[in-house]
Amino acid sequence: xxxxxxxxxCLMCLxxxxxxxxxxLSCPDSVQVGLPLKCSVDTNLPAGTTFxxxxxxxxxxxxxxxxxTVTVQDNQATQYQLIDTKGFPGGQxxxxxQFSGADEGRLSTSSVTLQLPILIDRSSNITITSPLxxxxxxxxxxxxxxxxxxxxGVEIEVRGPDGVVFGPQWIGTxxxxxxxxxxxxxxxxxxxPGAYDVTFSDANGFIGIKTFNxxxxxxxxxxxxxxxxxxxxxxxxxxxxxxxxxxxxxxxxLTMIAALSLAGLLLVFLQGKKQ
Length: 275
Fold this sequence. Notes:
Layout lengths: L1 H18 L3 E4 L3 E3 L4 E7 L6 E8 L8 E6 L7 E5 L7 E9 L14 E2 L2 E3 L5 E3 L4 E3 L4 E7 L7 E7 L2 E9 L2 E2 L6 E7 L5 E9 L2 E11 L37 H22 L1
Parallel strand pairs: 2-9, 11-18
Antiparallel strand pairs: 1-3, 3-6, 4-5, 4-7, 7-8, 7-9, 10-12, 12-16, 13-14, 13-17, 15-16, 17-18
């Protein structure tokens, strides 16, 4: 009887092992901030099985930073997912697999569904001194310095809305004696307005990305000034100036008094003669 029980347990284990699916998530241990985090997925889950590859900042699991949906195909070939890290702060992150159903319970105990990559941020080593917003009509000016770069040079690539417009190409840096940084300057002709990402790398690999915005230059609108002023037609009104009116000047008061006195004397004389 004991032999029968042992055989039954062995058969159950074999059935359990055969029904379990394998799953392997693999991500690099570290990557420079700004470069894509390339993770691979290998599984023998049935075709059509769908799951998410989710990235969180380690310690902050409430909101996913990136989510990629993956569906298993018939050939069950390895699938690669690129997770954009541009703009992320440096530090440790978590990438995990999330199933919407009960598929996770069907995985073998040897399956790997969690990775803890580290993002290395060197972008703070880049200092840009030229304007990050420039206008069309002149080459894009890329000027600045790299921390502790000295005369070692730097490799840059400029990518715009329509693709790469410069590089990747090494340009020289000039030692800044005071702090040991390497100063650089480069002018790049760009085809038009848009956002241009400048990628910086050195002998140790990727450093970071700086974005320049190129906008259309303001065009001046010519102002038309009339060569002659429009004449306004006016009706001229002739005003006749009246001739001065001749008025008879009145007698002065002295003349009247003299006349009255003379008349009075004459009257007195005539009365005396009658007597």
